[in-house]
Specification:
The chain has 274 residues and is of the alpha/beta class. The termini are far apart.
Length: 274
């Protein structure tokens, strides 16, 4: 089995995760996945690992070593089956949520996390909701969501997938100081200075630098957006550019202030102006 290196894109939703993966995908050494279920295979094996009947017939250390090796070599086998390129970037926001488990399986995992002003993330979600009143959000019944206010929708999204859970788990990870092998980018900064950030990323991954054409970014990953509901918009633009923030106009001042007040650690840690 050929040797390949596995990296992880665990960016927040609506924060450029698909854009970042497709940019990396232009590097000749990289295969990049669409939104991946690879983490689900790992979590599925953990269910079996914690089966008390099976554990009763094996000593604890051997059972744990077997679980780690099963996943470690399973990930390697999966990569080999999918691509023959030397580097593999897997995209799932759940890798950061289960970073402690990932670290047990992959020593010193290299994870990149793109974040974005939470007001802009929720604004992006609200715009998608308004643009698609006929499409199921896959999070909450659309009829119910239509019958409540913007602020109530943001409140719901802040407590559930895809944003709320990811932000909560990211906060726990940082609080526990488990982020030493995580490279954080702010989406806003990335759009302003992409070359600088990609140099940092390739240095972090310890791979050779590749010069990108920011006016010709090709879509390399293919997603079944219907499976993700209205927040499954994974189409990127060919030219890298950041649109002006309009979250105050979309969400209103009250909701914007509440997002900041409820997530002060996030705005302070990532140095967002409030």
């Amino acid at each position: 089995m050929k040797q390949q290196r596995l990296f992880f894109n665990s960016s927040l939703p609506r924060a450029g995760s698909t854009l970042l993966s497709n940019i990396v995908g232009h590097h000749p050494d990289f295969y990049v996945s669409p939104t991946s279920a690879l983490i689900d295979l790992v979590l599925g094996s953990r269910i079996g690992y914690n089966n008390e009947i099976e554990k009763a017939y094996t000593d604890t250390k051997t059972w744990k070593r077997g679980f780690i090796n099963f996943n470690r070599y399973g990930l390697a086998g999966f990569m080999n089956a999918v691509s023959d390129k030397p580097c593999y970037l897997d995209k799932s926001r759940m890798w950061a949520a289960y970073y402690d488990l990932l670290s047990m399986i992959v020593p010193n995992p290299r994870v990149v996390v793109m974040v974005r002003d939470l007001r802009a993330i929720y604004s992006s979600m609200e715009k998608k909701f308004r643009e698609n009143p006929d499409v199921d959000t896959k999070i909450m019944n659309n009829v119910e969501m239509t019958g409540i206010t913007t602020d109530q929708r943001v409140t719901h999204w802040s407590k559930t997938h895809p944003v709320g859970y990811s932000v909560i788990k990211l906060g726990e990870l940082i609080l526990q100081k488990l982020d030493k092998n995580i490279l954080f980018f702010r989406y806003e900064d990335f759009c302003q200075a992409p070359d600088q950030h990609m140099k940092k990323l390739y240095e972090f991954f310890q791979v050779k630098y590749f010069q990108h054409d920011w006016n010709n970014i090709q879509q390399l990953t293919s997603e079944n957006d219907e499976a993700h509901g209205i927040f499954g918009d994974h189409v990127i633009r060919n030219k890298l550019e950041r649109k002006p923030d309009d979250f105050k106009e979309i969400l209103g001042q009250y909701t914007c202030d509440r997002i900041v007040n409820q997530n002060k650690w996030f705005f302070e840690y990532f140095k967002y102006n409030i």
